[in-house]
Write a structure and sequence with these properties.
Radius of gyration: 22 Å
Low-confidence stretches: none
Structural class: mainly alpha
Number of strands: 0
Order of helices and strands: HHHHHHHHHH
Helix content: 55-70%
Mean pLDDT: 91
Strand content: under 5%
């Protein structure tokens, strides 16, 4: 009796087509390709503990010498130079894309609540635009929105009244034609970038930046309430904003945070498309499908 051939599926092929992932397939492919880089397999396991040890040492010394060791402008320039020379273009694009996506999420909350602050303007489309303290501003925006929501009742407006404006992702210039000495994956890149961050930021700024990612569950809950959609709650990780601990694996936490934002943003885009289709259907004659006469 001939034995039936065994299936030998690829993990990567399954991840790339997982129907439960709401993210656009082109973006999923870039994420998968980034995870398959040689640096992710061979260098990341070394870079991860190295980064944690160096940052721990920096933090310990900073308790004795609590001044800013590096101007924020220098940190910006150093990180941009590093991204241009040592990080793969796909990883750079995903990193810049995250800034836009988080701004879109923050602004959706602002537009659909009574928070009394203007929309956020941080939407970089190039490496150069990551300068001017974009990383610090990116974290501060999270705090500003949460504080602005203090005392503001959160309720779900009718679906037809939700404002889905500016959920677009503009074309991003990752400087693909620039010669690179290495093409690191995004997780390995984050391990090395965390070192100048810890040096340039004050202890309080660094703790604030790390803790901003503990608000992911809070934003998912806010989105679930505003959209009256439990889907957002499925991506909660159980992080508690009252857990004041910055001694964590920051690069890993940043990567997970970016994925959560991608999931939430992709679902918002899906809801926006459904709302647009419903509005178009309501504007047409249900019987004939033709637009009603004015």
């Amino acid at each position: 009796m001939t034995e039936a051939p065994r299936s030998d599926p690829s993990m990567w092929a399954a991840v790339a087509v997982d129907p439960a992932v709401p993210i656009d397939r082109a973006v999923v492919r870039k994420i998968v390709d980034d995870q398959r880089r040689m640096s992710r397999r061979w260098l990341y396991p070394l870079a991860r503990p190295f980064s944690r040890v160096v940052v721990a040492l920096v933090s310990a010394v900073k308790r004795v010498l609590p001044f800013r060791w590096m101007p924020l402008t220098t940190m910006d320039r150093l990180c941009i130079w590093y991204l241009r020379r040592f990080v793969s273009p796909d990883a750079v694009e995903l990193l810049i894309r995250h800034f836009v996506i988080e701004t879109n999420l923050v602004n959706f909350v602002l537009r659909n609540s009574d928070a009394a602050i203007p929309p956020v303007t941080l939407r970089p489309v190039s490496l150069a635009e990551l300068g001017d303290h974009a990383v610090v501003e990116h974290d501060v925006n999270v705090y500003d929105v949460l504080i602005a929501l203090d005392g503001v009742p959160l309720t779900a407006p009718p679906a037809s009244e939700l404002d889905f404006a500016e959920l677009d992702i503009p074309p991003i210039d990752a400087e693909r034609r620039r010669a690179r000495l290495l093409r690191l994956d995004i997780q390995t890149a984050l391990c090395f970038m965390n070192i100048p961050f810890s040096m340039a930021l004050t202890m309080e700024e660094y703790r604030r930046a790390v803790h901003s990612m503990r608000f992911d569950d809070s934003f998912l809950e806010i989105l679930a309430v505003l959209c009256d959609d439990d889907t957002f709650r499925h991506w909660k990780t159980g992080e508690l904003s009252l857990w004041m601990d910055s001694n964590v694996d920051v690069p890993r936490m940043v990567y997970r945070h970016a994925l959560i934002c991608e999931y939430a943003h992709a679902h918002l885009v899906k809801l926006a498309a459904a709302a647009a289709a419903a509005a178009a259907a309501a504007a047409s004659d249900p019987a004939s499908g033709r637009p009603q006469a004015g």
